[in-house]
Amino acid sequence: MAKEEEKLIKGKPTPYASTTPAELDTRNIFNSALDTTYIKGEIRAVDKYPNSDGILELTDIDQFPIGKIDIQLKTLSEKNYKSVKFQCEQNFFSYCENSSLPVFLIVVNRRDKKVYWRHIDLATLSEVSNKMKRKSYSLSIPKENTIEVGNKDYIKKWTEIAKANVRKVWNYDSVNERNKLIESQMQQLNSRLQDPTNLPVPILRNLHFFLDEFNYILDKEFPSVKQILYPNYWKIGIGIIKYEIGDVRYLLFPAEFKKSQILIKKVIKGEYEDFMQEMYNRNILLLSSSKDDSELRLTPVSTAYKILEDDIMRTVKNINFPIPDECLSREYLISFIDKNQGYLDLNYQAEFYSLKDLKRKLYSILPMIAATSKNYADWVVDHNDDIDSYSHWKSSQSIKNRIADAIKLIDQNYSPKVKVTMTSTLYNIELINYYINYLESKGISDVHRLYAVNQFNNEMYGVDDWKTWYKEPVWENTKLFFKKFYELYEKYILLHFPKLKNELQIIDSPETTIVHILHFDEIEKSRPHLEIYYLRPNIPKVGEILFYLNEDPNNPIDRRRFGLECKSDCRIDGLEYNITQMHVQVLDFMFTLSPTYTLIKDTLEELLKKLFNQRKYAQTVL
Question: Which of 40, 226, 385, 537 is buried deepest, with most CB atoms within 10 A?
Fold first, then answer.
């Protein structure tokens, strides 16, 4: 037997993990199924990156980039081959919630070489939040969500998701323009920042603590707001212009996603004056100065809230964040249709509308009409056509003819010189698309009207909307609205402000009963409003949502008894209740484009003002 060759270092190298062959096989099956015409990138195997196995980029047929997606690749257990599902850890869902890219869970059946996918979207996270009992959750994956050679369905769906993420603002085009400005300014700014070399350790420590607090507020308390303000950035960093006792100047900047990123920078000397004009509008960077460093050093929490308050409050007020819910989908889509029914050539106040027809008109027919009926300059190749400008149009034979001509061109695969996209200021077209897709994902093909319509046309110029309505439809709509509102508000908070759910709640106990009393005098035409009472039962009982007309003899609330010595404030069905709080709610919001969004944002704005007032004066001393 030959003697083993002498080695300088005894022992063997670290071996691959026992799971390595399976991981490599899973990756190879996945890669071989992908259509590389439309999907570019590589998936890692045998790595130590948590939650993500790689970023893929989607392109169109001409190889222009469309957007990026984040992939988590897993091997499917044999016991789950028939009913496809995967046990995901809680921290993976947390990663998905905070990710700036759409995250896809990919599972591979190695035996049959089949690949399945599921997008971890807001609806999925809501499902997980409601059903996860422990530190993991078994997530089902639709069998029709397959990735295989020759199958283009998943490419189309992934492309729509990637496009939506690129435009993930859920509201106005001005936000898109603002984000473009961020990109432009950051390119200029990066050349003016350098790593700090002479800042003392205590100061660096203070700055790190401040940034931890600042980024916690954005990442954890207001993640959806961060998606709007800084959609493609990792953290917020600080650039020190000057740091001396009695003279502290700094700016805040969004830091890109990179493996190595320093969040504390020093601004190159002599560039301060240039920043003054660039940062005047505070679109992306805060330029700050103070008499001393006590704000950053002694009160980092309150300082962070003071800096962020305006941006957060403005975003919460202006943005309609999505909620995966059928009722809200119906409310928003029907409102959009009613506003634009003439130009869409849809029946006025019909009970339901075809989602397929709505999609085709909004994304194919109306863009074709605009592309072929307007005179564009030779250099124009893209055009945004505002559907709001046609909202006063009535259905007519002229519109029907335009639509018929556009359909002929579409059927002939005609490609106009100018690519037209329908936009709206009153509504968010991305949100329209989101709710259409949500309903279709539930197997719903028609959007049904949610609220009762008025008995006559309520478009009377110069007259308050509520004056054009009769009492009965207002009463029916109000009852329907508030039966669902509290659930939708809670969903909104859990999805978009999860860490603040206790601070932003409006119902503090499952035992709370809420009584709504409508005041609406049709004769005097007084402004309709509700008295809303929150009641606590004297014995344990699940709360209810109740409604009464002010003149109803069964109305349990008698305000004449307030202040009298009694064991309870009211009695309902033989049970005694104490009134814990009461407020008056004017019903103006019921006559807005989206009553649910209007009241959610009004309620949230009021509660956030209280939150900021409390935290701006928090004293945190290092």
Answer: 226
Interatomic CA distance for residues 622 and 618, integer angstroms: 13
What sign for the dihedral angle of Cα 4, 7, 11, 13? negative
Per residue in 282-320, pLDDT tens? 434 555 655 556 677 778 888 889 889 988 999 999 889
Between helix 471-496 and helix 595-615 the angle, nearest 10°, is 50
Residue 86: predicted pLDDT:
93
Query: CA–CA separation, 158 vs 119, rounded Å?
Result: 9
Whether residue 199 contacts residue 266, with contact meaning beta carbons closer than 8 Å, is answered with yes
Task: Say how many C-beta atoms besides its own lie within 10 A of residue 262's C-beta.
Answer: 12
Phi–psi pair at 146, nearest 5 degrees: -110, 155
Give, to the nearest 10 degrees, the angle between helix 397-411 and helix 366-373. Answer: 90
8 Å CB contact between 348 and 395: yes
Integer Cα distance of 30 and 22 in angstroms: 12
User: Bridge partners of 117?
Assistant: 106
- If you search the block for the tokens 């006590």, which residue do you land on? 294
| pLDDT at residue 445 tops 90 | yes
Q: What is the pLDDT of residue 240?
A: 81
CB 342 within 8 A of CB 459: no
- Rounded to whole angstroms, the Cα distance separating 115 from 364 reads 32
602, pLDDT greater than 50: yes
Annotate 98-118 with DSSP letters as a single string.
H-SS-EEEEEEETTTTEEEEE
- CATH class of the domain comprising 20-152: alpha beta
Residue 277, H or E segment: helix 272-278
* DSSP string across 289-308: EESSSHHHHH-HHHHHHHHH
CB 316 within 8 A of CB 604: yes
- The full set of domain ranges for the chain reads 20-152, 173-300, 326-450, 471-591
* 276 within 8 A of 287, measured Cβ to Cβ: yes
> Which stretches of 9-153 are assigned E, i.e. beta strand?
39-40, 54-59, 65-75, 85-89, 103-109, 114-119, 136-140, 146-147
Q: Is 287 exposed, middle or buried (0-12, 13-18, 19+ CB in 10 A)?
A: middle
For 1-49, the pLDDT digits (tens) are: 445 556 655 555 555 455 567 788 888 899 888 888 888 887 766 555 5
Dist CA 389 CA 366 (whole Å): 13
CA gap 304, 311 in Å, rounded:
12
Task: Report residue 460 CA to chain centroid gap.
Answer: 35
Query: Residue 163 has which token pair?
Result: 């496009």
| Pair of tokens at residue 304 | 């962070």
Q: Give me 141's structure tokens.
A: 């994956």
Q: Which residues fall within 8 angstroms of residue 295, CB to CB, at 6 or more apart?
A: 303
Give, as one character, the DSSP assignment of residue 285: -
Q: State mean pLDDT over 472-482.
A: 94
